[in-house]
Specification:
The chain has 390 residues and is α/β, with parallel strands linked by helices. Strands 1, 10, 11, 12, 13, 14, 15 and 16 form an 8-stranded mixed sheet that branches. An 8-stranded parallel barrel has the order 2-3-4-5-6-7-8-9, surrounded by 4 helices. β4, α6 and β5 form a beta-alpha-beta unit. α3 packs parallel to α10 and α9 runs parallel beside α10.
């Protein structure tokens, strides 16, 4: 008898621990689906806010732009970090005030800068002379902060050299911004996504604190420090509780920068990851030869349909099945597409039940961040990741 994916959970016994897992274990689905519990976003927001103190939370919209998340955060009084015109339009359409939105992408089209300025956005980021010149032309008089490069990251997902500039360039850009008629207000940085322990911020803060002091000594009246993201989610390795983590970060910031009038924090993953769970299906379990040490487990979701952060095996998701409790063994995990790059975990195989087979439902924990937004439109004809809010 053929059992369809939507029916498979009816008799399955999942080790569920909360209402999100309960829903995912028993509701009917016919394709990979991200299920979000927005109440958990609110709980995490309050926990982070309690530790961040006077710092404003600017939610990194790119982590998950679900309308229900933005609406809830607007009601809670959150601010927003927008990466594009589309994200600005989304936030404004759901009630966010322009003064609560920062245009945080350092690579912006001139016409999008003009749109943001006309919409009332007054705070922009930059890390290059040409970007400042675009802002000065299309958002005259705007406030700008300069993004600093981070080269000492201990994060699981460092942000490399694509964004930011070094000390000497940053000081020169502050002068250039002022000469252009802009208002340079401070610096931003990103310690790296999934920085699991607050202590890991120390080397970065040591380095950037010296740049802050140099700018002040050069006569710049800095009033804003954007500490970016990096706030972690649980993917199997221990992390600190959100309030304790945020408080320890702020203690380190104060120790190196003193009291800063305006501190911005931009949690994305740390705010929404644990509010989401993906429901998927095992498509195939196989071995390449009789000598193969590991099984291959192919899922109905892969790197092109939401799990892009398995790149380099940096983010190691946690999987739940109805066969948990059975003997386990290592397996290579892959997605369903006809692309050889669509392999999730091979360098460090995952331990999954040996009884796992095609048609089994599989739940992927803490997938509320950077999954729906990374999902392709229709790669290989597979549908994009569906999203359900409970």
């Amino acid at each position: 008898m053929t059992v369809h994916f939507a029916e498979a959970a009816a008799s399955a016994r999942f080790p569920v621990t909360n209402r999100l897992e309960q829903y995912c274990a028993h509701a009917a689905f016919d394709k990979p689906t991200l299920v979000l519990d927005v109440d958990r976003v609110e709980t995490q927001y309050h926990a982070l806010k309690a530790g961040l103190g006077h710092a404003d939370i600017h939610y990194a919209v790119k982590a998950n732009p679900a309308r229900a998340i933005i609406e809830r955060l607007v009601r809670l009084g959150a601010h927003f970090d927008a990466a594009s015109r589309g994200e600005i339009e989304l936030c404004l359409s759901l009630g966010a005030r322009p003064e609560t939105i920062s245009y945080g992408n350092t690579v912006k089209l001139a016409r999008d800068i003009a749109f943001a300025h006309q919409a009332g956005i007054t705070l922009f980021s930059a890390d290059a002379e040409e970007e400042l010149e675009k802002i000065a032309e299309h958002a005259p008089g705007a406030q700008v902060y300069i993004r600093l490069i981070v080269e000492l990251s201990q994060a699981d997902w460092p942000l490399s050299r694509k964004f930011g500039c070094d000390r000497d360039t940053a000081l020169r850009l502050l002068d250039h911004a002022k000469a252009l008629g802009l208002t340079p207000v401070g610096f931003s940085f990103h310690v790296g996504s999934q920085t699991r322990q607050a202590a890991m911020w120390g080397p970065t803060l040591d380095q950037l604190g010296k740049i802050w002091d140099a700018a002040r000594d050069a006569g710049h009246a800095l009033t804003l420090l954007n500490i970016g993201g990096g706030f972690p989610a649980f993917y199997g390795e221990a992390i600190e509780a959100p309030t304790d983590y945020a408080a320890r970060v702020m203690e380190q910031v104060t120790a190196r920068f003193g009291h800063v009038a305006r501190v911005m924090a931009e949690p994305g993953r740390g705010l929404v990851a644990e509010a989401g769970m993906i429901v998927a299906e095992v498509v195939l379990v196989s071995r390449k030869s009789e000598r193969d040490m590991h099984r291959w487990v192919y899922l109905s979701i892969g790197r092109f349909s939401g799990l892009a952060e398995t790149e380099g095996e940096a983010i190691r998701y946690q999987f739940v099945t109805a066969r948990d409790g059975d003997p386990v063994g290592p397996c290579i995990m892959a997605g369903p597409s006809c692309d050889s790059a669509d392999v999730l975990y091979e360098k460090r195989p995952m331990n999954l039940p040996l009884t796992l087979k095609s048609g089994d439902r599989i739940l992927i924990r803490n997938t509320g961040a950077y999954t729906s937004t990374y999902s392709s439109v229709c790669f290989n004809g597979f549908p994009p990741l569906d999203v359900v809010v409970i």
